[in-house]
Amino acid sequence: MFRPRDSHDLRLLDTTLTISPIARVRWLHDVFGNSVAIARFGDTHTADTLVFESAFRVKHYPVPLEHLDLDTDARRYPFFNPAGEAPDLAPYAARQYPDPDGAISAWARGFLSKDGTADTLALLNAMNGAIHRDFAYVRRAEDGTNPPARTLSEHSGTCRDYALLMMEAVRCLGFAARFVTGYLYDETRLGDSMLLGGGETHAWLQVYLPGAGWVEFDPTNAIAAGRNLIRVAVARDPAQAIPLSGSYYGSSNDALSMDVRVTVSAETVFA
What we know:
Elements: E1 10-20, E2 24-29, E3 35-40, E4 51-60, E5 76-77, H1 86-93, H2 103-109, E6 118-119, H3 120-134, E7 136-137, H4 148-154, E8 156-157, H5 159-172, E9 177-184, E10 201-209, E11 213-218, E12 223-224, E13 229-235
Parallel strand pairs: 7-8
Antiparallel strand pairs: 1-4, 2-3, 5-6, 9-10, 9-13, 10-11, 11-12
Helix pairs in contact: 2-5, 4-5
């Protein structure tokens, strides 16, 4: 999953995928509409290094959070999703992970007023900022995503852990949320990002808000509404949006390591 999702706010101008050794590649759309490249190699072909190089050019048109136009009924929490959309949103609103002692639910409700209401965008922004402010960001090379209850109890995690925690927290409140994988850039320091998660694949989430649609939140950096975020794939769960996965045949003592490099540059436009 390397190809960005082309849309009105993220226009894909061109893209290339180079694989070494040479592979047979076919493309498909998964159940979420993500572009997935399937690479297969010859049965007799051997190599000591496997390289995937993805390059693309995009134009990004993020909408600032303050310019989002939510339906009148959705501007204050709680609200109901439109009846025609509720069945389609139900899988994204259903909680996916255990919360045996109710810690995630209690933490999520801590962002509400005493009467259980809140300004919708202020609520989501507060939760987004609290994870960024109160949790310790750690890089972890191991596969998988920590369960949200563990991330909350340890107050630390990776970008994908943060995204999953906020997904489950807003689901406690009845919001529909989905996982996003992609790339992060900092326009003030392109190529040498100061944002957490820059220079590698990144993860965040989207929350569905009637009138505005899927709105992006990055709790790792307290970013809202998509600025600095180039999305590649969306999914109901992080396990469904792994950027690179596969298998190989070789000796059991072969060294296994992976080096990931993400470089972003800005094009100069001349009038």
